[in-house]
Amino acid sequence: MLSVPQKIILETDRLIVREIGEADAPFILRLLNDPAFIKNIVDKEVRTLDQACDYINSGPVTSYRENGFGLYVVVLKEGKASIGMCGLVKRDGLDDPDIGYALLPEYCSKGYAVEAASAVLEYGQTQLGIEKIVGIVNPDNVGSAKVLEKIGLVFEKIIKVSEDLPETKYYISRKTTR
Predict the structure, then answer these.
(1) For 36-56, b where at least 16 C-beta lie within 10 A, e where not — what string?
(2) Is the separation of the CB atoms in 10 and 119 below 8 Å?
(3) Is the whole-model pTM more than 0.85?
(4) Of 96, 104, 141, 144, which sits most exposed with the smallest number of CB within 10 A?
């Protein structure tokens, strides 16, 4: 694996949000296998570093190329630790990009998800010109629903993104004019 510096997408007071690369494979492997990620998002069945590299290249890196956005690594400015992912995802079952985020458990409940998601939402609206960004969340995931509400998304309905996935709560946001 080559250690190539990844493009910084944005910065907040405490965080750097940057593109994911193969050098992030050990971190991605840990995040995708966190029990909360598997329970609240999905089991990506990524169990090795090679599979983590495949996930990075077929998911986020492909999305950067095809959509101009994707999931990004969230890094603490202080200490430079990778703490999670946050970004925009274009899913086959949704008309609009949705905002996604996941943090390692030791970084939850510290405001990082709201800080990263709020900045990514603003980036999508102002820098990428996306009119409507949505959010989907497992109905049992109260914490994630609170993040969506804190960044200004509004619950609209329960949907099924695809037949093989369970029902999910669907939130919407409209582009704000500033």
Answers:
(1) bbeeebeebebeeeebbbebb
(2) yes
(3) yes
(4) 96
